[in-house]
Amino acid sequence: MKIAMIGTGYVGLVSGVCFSDFGHDVVCVDKDAAKIARLEAGDIPIFEPGLEGLIARNVGAGRLTFTRDLAGAVAAAEVVFIAVGTPARRGDGHADLRFVYAAAGEIARALSGYTVVVTKSTVPVGTNREVGRIIRAANPAADFDMASNPEFLREGVAIDDFMHPDRVIIGVESERAAEVMARIYHPLVLRDRPIITTDPESAEMIKYAANGFLAARITFINEIAALCERVGADVGQVARGMGFDRRIGSGFLRAGPGYGGSCFPKDTRALARIGQEHAVPMQITEAVIEVNEGVKRRMTGKITDVCGGSVNGRTIAVLGVTFKPDTDDMRDAPALTIVPALVGGGAVVRVVDPQGRREGEALLPGVGWYEDAYAAAEGADAVVILTEWAAFRALDLGRLAGVMAHPAMADLRNVYSVDQARRAGFAVYAAVGRAGYGLPET
Q1: Over the stretch 255-300, which tens digit does the pLDDT of each residue have?
Q2: Cα 5 from chain centroid?
Q3: Does 194 share its domain with 213?
Q4: Residue 275: CB atoms within 10 Å
Q5: What average pLDDT does range 387-394 have in this prediction?
Q6: Is the entire prediction scored with pTM above 0.90?
Q7: Structural domain boundaries, residue 180
Q8: Of 282, 318, 398, 423, which is the most buried if we count CB atoms within 10 A?
Q9: Is the same domain home to 234 and 281?
């Protein structure tokens, strides 16, 4: 099928490339001339494992192209996906739909022949209908149907998520649109992946409900971790014991410095706002948002304890600043709260991240950037593991401790154990939700 993907951000680019790998003819559209030029030159603007090779393969096969010409791409398409950004609006947390509605207006003027217009962006309930209204108002003669097709891509494993999804959600109101969407996803049907067809409002709500629930799981285990530290329990063992219960499962029960990224912070705020607008307060979601911010602040206190009660004048090596490993995404990363607090407290902060520097240099002023964990730790008073990149999961801890002025570690991802840190020569070690040593009494 002929597909136009409007927007080449994370969701649009990954989705468009994967659709082309299904065998469809895909045109990815973006207004940003520099981004399109980079993509045409094979320079990928985001970091996602496997994406560069997939783009090269499908461009070479003639199934994938990039353009700024929205009208031309839409006119030739059987299906048009809207995959533009929906950032949290300043002030109220509601999803900012300006880009979605602007795209709808441009699409309306370019439609030619029967087309299915699909909202791929994460949008509040009712947006699908509003996009349809905008298109009909701008082009009353347009022959089209709307569909909602929310994405569930995890950064770092997005290609595998697209090719082997837990489910595909399709919200439609016509059989004709349902048939078109089934043709698009036919390769997944052959792989026995569930395709769930529902109404547009339910499809839109599924996305928010899923992300709100997962954010709540992360926040719950982080609260349990804080309690574990006070009562002498080990949150890792607690989570493992919980996870074997089939009613609970083990996913998203790893304690750490709080959730971040492009989805959970934005979508929980939007879900809370939707509830407020409809006089159905999302009290659990609102509490999740508040607690998650507190978790980030608590991590700053943990680092301060490792440094003996004050970070002023201390040199601290921070390992990892992206919100998770295998991505360059810094959006709402815990580092954006923790690192500025350290700098503001008078610390000299050295940062190492395999992919975070491109965005991080602008977002984290006042820090030094290093290519190597051991170089960053040389002469340092503390080392902080903030993102569990593979490079930081297999450190020579003895070597690391040996180059530090004061060997102390805040392991905010529980990568190592107390025994490993002690044997390596660390005088102070703190983790999340389990025992450390060498810390001030609480």
Answers
A1: 999 999 989 999 999 999 999 999 999 999 999 999 999 999 999 9
A2: 20
A3: no
A4: 16
A5: 96
A6: yes
A7: 2-198
A8: 318
A9: yes
